[in-house]
Design brief:
Length: 260
């Protein structure tokens, strides 16, 4: 991979559920150390696109490449062969996902949630896994909550455990699906601050978000999806400025009015 090549490339991606077309030919790329925000109305295809990148949803057609390697499939002569679950699992480790609803194991402590993947998927020795888990929980501001179970954590704290768990596998790209949507307003700031610090460290991220102010401040590049297509994309000053497409300006202005 050369510096000129994108870390992630998506070409003409389509996804349908039955007769409903959700993604209609999405093409975009993400550079190394770039923070890309996906914005758009509910139902525009943002979360579906993110889940296709990680192959939690199988695209109907189109291609996704990570460092030039196809995701979810391999070429066998003239045929495209789906990867085995083991091969797909290896690819997913490079694209860790943070979900809206935390998805923590309720019977495991914060530390156990973070290190489970290291022990099970990577066969890392327990002492080494614990050391990494402690370091990551301290990184997200939860060094004092190592032994707390999810039921004893606030929503914001649970989401920060989820971020630490995603970071544990040392992914090449972090995928965040509306990471603050399930949180009470007073808990949002701490989670956004963790994401902001990761951006400052140069971690490549794709963030599906409705937090327009956050997207404006943190993202290097913003993609506006509308009805399954990329309606507009560019740096924040374009998306939030006078050069944006009319549909983009209408969407952004509507959200800004709601937050006043």
């Amino acid at each position: 991979m050369t510096e000129a090549q994108p870390l992630l490339a998506i070409r003409d991606l389509h996804k349908s559920f039955g007769d409903v077309q959700v993604l209609k030919g999405v093409t975009l790329s993400v550079k190394r150390q770039q923070v890309v925000g996906f914005i758009g109305a509910s139902g525009s295809g943002k979360s579906t696109l993110l889940r296709c990148i990680n192959m939690l949803e199988t695209p109907s057609s189109g291609d996704i490449f990570l460092e030039g390697q196809p995701i979810g499939f391999r070429d066998a002569g003239t045929k495209r062969v789906p990867l085995s679950q083991r091969e797909l699992s290896l690819q997913r480790r490079q694209m860790s996902m943070v979900f809206q609803q935390f998805n923590l194991w309720p019977h495991k402590t914060a530390l156990e949630n973070v290190i489970e993947g290291l022990i099970v998927a990577q066969s890392m020795p327990l002492a080494r896994a614990r050391e990494r888990g402690v370091r990551l929980l301290e990184k997200v501001g939860l060094g004092e909550k190592l032994d707390a179970y999810p039921s004893r954590l606030s929503g914001g704290q649970q989401q920060r455990v989820g971020i630490a768990r995603a970071l544990a596998l040392d992914p090449k790209i972090l995928l965040l699906d509306e990471p603050t949507s399930a949180l009470d307003p007073e808990l949002v700031a701490d989670v956004l601050e963790v994401i902001r610090s990761l951006a400052q460290e140069g971690l490549t991220m794709i963030i599906v978000t409705h937090e327009m102010s956050f997207a404006h401040q943190v993202c290097d590049h913003i993609v506006f999806l509308d009805k399954g297509v990329v309606c507009d994309s560019g740096p924040p000053d374009h998306i939030f400025g006078a050069t944006a497409e009319p549909r983009t300006r209408a969407f952004v202005n509507r959200y800004l009015q709601q937050t006043k």
